[in-house]
Sequence to fold (143 residues):
Amino acid sequence: MKKLFISVAIVSLIILSCSETSSGNSDLYGDNITIETSTALATILADRDANVGMEFKIEGVMVEVCQKKGCWINFKDGEEIITVRFKDYGFFMPKDGAGRKAKIQGFLVHNTFEETNDAGQIIRTDSYEIVASAVELAKSEKF
Fold:
């Protein structure tokens, strides 16, 4: 009887801890989106160094999804494309989600990579990405 109780408790915790919720025309991954107004990705990236660490809500289309787990996406807003990863590796996007509209809340992050080329020179590469705490994903192409 004790084993049954523990099994039921574990299953209940797993169900309650799922980070995906569904409503109407969209699915919510991660936290709730709390920022009302969206900011154009072009505006964020125009002054990217000043915007690092700031939280934004962006809207656009998922153009590519990681096919191993759905652990990152490439996201397009207008002409701008940015990579989005998910806070604390806490949720993933459906691998068939490319082409679907999304609303994302997250922080702009600056990454610097250094590598040495064959001539011994250090090559520095900078990149920017969004670390999302919440994603509202349309069930079809449109909300």
Q: What stands out?
A: Residues 8-18 have pLDDT under 50 and may be disordered. The chain has three helices and seven strands. The two ends are 47 Å apart (CA to CA).
